[in-house]
Structures are given as C-alpha cells and as structure tokens.
Amino acid sequence: MYAFKYQRAESVGAASAALSADGSAKVLSGGMTLLPSMKHRLTAPSALIDVARLPEMTGVRQEGDHWWVGAATKHQDVAAHAGLQKAMPGLVMLAGLIGDPQVRARGTLGGSLANNDPSADYPSAALALQAQIITDRRTIEADDFFLGMFATALHSDEVITGVRFRTPQRCAYGKFKHPASGYAMAGVFVAQYALAGAANGGWRVAVTGVANGVFRWHEAEQALAQGAQPPALQRDDVIDDVHAPAAYRTHLALQMLAQARQSLT
Ligand SMILES: Cc1cc2nc3c(=O)[nH]c(=O)nc-3n(C[C@H](O)[C@H](O)[C@H](O)COP(=O)(O)OP(=O)(O)OC[C@H]3O[C@@H](n4cnc5c(N)ncnc54)[C@H](O)[C@@H]3O)c2cc1C
Rg of the chain's alpha carbons, rounded to an integer? Predict the structure, then answer.
C-alpha cells in the first residue's frame, strides 16, 4: 500500500473542507471496499477522511412518510432496527443478507451507494423505495444517482450524509447470493405505493447483480400493475462471466422477483 494521510473528521463540514482542499483525498466509511482496493493498488488516495463515527451521519429516524438513515449507519444496525422492520421489512431483510457478520459490522449504507458495485444490494432498495440521496451540498433522487457500473452522480469531493427512503405500502427483497462472496448474483427489490392511475400502478421493481448497474425493471412493474405474469427479462447488458452465464442470471432475476413477491408484507 502507498503512504497516505489519515484524518478523522470532526463534522460533515470539516470532511467537506478536507476533501475540497485535496483533490486526491477520499472519504473513508466502513473501509470494506476502499481498503482492499488500496491494498490491490486499484486506487491510491493521498488522504483518507474518516466519517465513520460522525453522529450527524449515523442513525435511523422517521420523517413523516419517509425514513432517514444516516450514511455512516452500519448494515447490522439497519438489519436490527425495529421501526424499519415494521415500515419497510424488505430493507431490513436486505441489510441482514449483506456479506457476513464482519462485513455488516463495518460496512455502511453511504459507502455502498457511493461505490455502486453492480452486485451490491442497497442500490436496488434505493431505486425501488424512491430514495433521496442527501449529500453535504444537495439532494439527489435515486433515479438520477446510479450511472452504471461503479459510477454515480456524486462529485469526487461530495459526501453522502444520509438517505431518505419513502415508506411503501409493502416491500420485499429476493436475493440469490454468490456462495463465496455473498454478493447478489441476482437481487430484486419490490415495493408497492398507493398510486392509482400510474402506468406502473404504484409498483417499483429494481434489480441488482444482473446487469452493468442497478436498474428499474419497468416491464415487471407494468405486469404487476395489471396482475399479469411478469415477462422474461430482456436486456443487452446482462453480465456474462465466470460466476454465471447471462441466461442463468436472466432466469435468476425472474426467480428472485417471484421470491420477493412471496414475502411481500
Ligand atoms: C467480503 C465482503 C462481502 C461483501 N458482501 C456484500 C454483499 O453481499 N452485498 C453488498 O451489497 N455489499 C457487500 N459488500 C460490500 C460492503 O457491504 C460495503 O457496503 C461496501 O464495502 C462499501 O461500504 P463501506 O462503508 O465499507 O465503504 P468504504 O469502503 O469506506 O468506501 C467505499 C467507497 O465509497 C466512498 N464513500 C464511502 N462513504 C461515503 C460517503 N458517505 N459519501 C461519499 N463517498 C463515500 C469511498 O470514498 C469509497 O470510494 C461486501 C464486502 C466484503 C469485503
């Protein structure tokens, strides 16, 4: 690993200032992805600005018809939250399925969204639950946030401080795990909102692990709105690699949609 500076931020403002002052500095949250990337020399930031212990970026609270989850909130704390379990059980289930206990004890919501791994779980929940990604300078709708594999609308010196998820009528997550990493070979998040008259009838279906980035499965949403059988997934960017051929991943998407629908509450 290259030499780098380490700075524990005292506030979001201090983190923003440190990042603006050094164009090669990076936010450090759980470190579950960033530190291995540095060890493999895939990235070499000059400084790490640690936001993992900032109280203003941590915790869960209800805000009207939304739930705010701090960006530095650990997966294990989302998985164990009683209020979220009642309001959006699919999100709680998703957090509990991430990696293993060690990863859930360190990895954070903000780190997962900022990294936007095409097989990460949280991006699908953010899309399906109409999340707003709140940063140190603006609010970004989830529909505008994910820009493809490991790419987001974030500026390099921008800090996600929290995420507001819109409370659905019901939601659930279906995940087929890679047996070694725990990442999604296919993950499908389904949420239903009261939206009479919309083409999707209030249904939102988001898929991870299957293509070059998380995406809304509009054909499945329309089928659910019409009470019809969801059609097979058709995309030209389905991942085809040593872990699974494209046809298998496409098949898994349909299976995970069925699994999520079965556990809708
Ligand atoms: C063995 C293993 C198994 C895993 N399995 C899964 C899985 O099954 N499903 C899954 O979804 N994920 C999985 N992960 C990923 C993990 O859950 C974390 O979500 C992920 O590593 C990123 O979160 P982090 O807090 O560790 O971020 P870090 O590693 O600290 O940072 C990741 C990136 O995000 C940036 N960043 C971090 N926080 C912020 C912020 N607040 N604002 C702006 N940028 C920020 C960093 O600069 C860096 O570029 C796994 C990881 C490991 C190591």
Answer: 18
